[in-house]
Write a structure and sequence with these properties.
With about 325 residues, this protein is of the alpha/beta class. The chain folds into two domains: about 140 residues, ATPase, nucleotide binding domain (Nucleotidyltransferase, domain 5); about 170 residues, ATPase, nucleotide binding domain (Nucleotidyltransferase, domain 5), CATH 3.30.420.40. Helices cover about 40% and strands about 15% of the residues. The protein has twelve helices and ten strands. The strands form two sheets. A five-stranded mixed β-sheet has the order 3-2-1-4-5. A five-stranded mixed β-sheet has the order 8-7-6-9-10. Strand 6 and strand 7 form a beta hairpin. Helix 4 crosses helix 9. The termini are far apart.
């Protein structure tokens, strides 16, 4: 595999287009042969290689690309990275990678990959997984971001935020004289192993990370299925919070017509998707069409990599246009 010589896409029949989706939990690398044929995939935990140091991470990522490509040359490389939350951070990681290869490359936020995967360049991408963020890069090239502040401050509609808001709802429930018979109360007490009512807050603070907190989000949705009014309100506000992020970008001049949402929580939980779409109708009526992205974000990274070689085609020959399977309405 060659990462040191820039090349035309069709210079070698075995040339590869490489896209990378770096998530908070896992990293997905995909190499697509320029001449056609099956893609190569490599998926591994992000914690196995990422150190949150641009230089070290760039070195490690280039090594992963080399492992995936083998003896084949790489024609272009595109990365969507969780944690690259503004233009400066994207540029810092891109510069670190560029210092280690002359292959054409670019780095964007991972939320930007989902609209690209659907062939919707310049539209708003929304991630609702362990964390949440909304990102758009309009024709001006400016990177517009809303959210992404972490579960302590925000991350509306994310797994960790939903658990945080559920704990707050339970606390208010007790303050108002409620008892433990509400389904969300029992769900949270069981999920967080709360020993007694006064220890509710400390049980949440004992969780080691956003991922540790977020894995309990299923308890909120289970409680909603059991008829919990508290859980239903938490979910509704979470979805509306995600919609608010999109509406903020719209007000700031995103100029988008579509908002593409994805991530482990919103894809797997129909109630959250419904709350998001309803919130978008309320906060940006008639301005944006919501789409639920259920594919692999790495598809967007591959399209982006191909566009570095043939900008006008945006990889159209390699990646046929996709249509979101679930625009506007909810899913079952």
């Amino acid at each position: 595999m060659t990462l040191s010589e820039p090349m035309e896409l069709n210079a070698r029949p075995d040339a590869l287009i490489v896209g990378i989706d770096i998530g908070g939990t896992k990293t997905h690398l995909r190499a697509v042969p320029a001449a056609g044929g099956p893609a190569r995939d490599l998926v591994l935990p992000s914690a196995d290689w990422r150190r949150r140091d641009w230089g070290k991470d760039a070195t490690a990522l280039i090594e992963l690309v080399a492992r995936l490509a083998g003896e084949s040359p790489v024609a272009a490389l595109a990365v969507g990275a969780h944690g690259c939350d503004d233009a400066e951070e994207c540029q810092a990681f891109q510069s670190a990678l560029a210092a280690r290869t002359t292959v054409p490359l670019t780095v964007v936020n991972d939320a930007e990959l989902m609209p690209l995967a659907l062939g919707l360049a310049g539209q708003i991408g929304v991630v609702a997984g362990t964390g949440s963020i909304a990102v758009c890069r309009p024709a001006s090239g400016e990177m517009l971001v809303a959210g992404g502040w972490g579960w302590i401050v925000g991350d509306e509609g994310s797994a960790a935020s939903l658990v945080r808001e559920a704990v707050r709802a339970v606390a208010r429930h007790f303050d108002e004289g409620g008892d433990r018979r509400e389904p969300l109360v029992e769900a949270i007490f069981e999920a967080l192993a709360v020993p007694s009512i006064p220890r509710l807050g400390s049980a949440l603070s004992r969780q080691a990370s956003a991922a540790a907190i977020g894995r309990h989000a299923v308890a909120v949705f289970d409680a909603a299925d059991q008829g919990s009014a508290l859980a239903l309100e938490v979910i509704r506000e979470g979805g509306r919070g995600l919609a608010r992020l999109v509406a903020l970008l719209d007000r700031r001049g995103a100029g988008a017509a579509h908002a593409v949402a994805g991530g482990s929580v919103i894809v797997s939980q129909p109630r959250l998707w419904q709350a998001f779409t309803e919130g978008l109708v309320e906060l940006a009526p008639g301005r944006l069409t919501p789409h639920l992205f259920t594919g692999k974000p790495v598809e967007g990274a591959c399209r982006l990599a191909a566009s570095l070689i043939h900008p006008r085609q945006s990889g159209a020959g390699l990646f046929p246009p996709r249509v979101s399977s679930r625009p506007k309405e909810g899913h079952s």
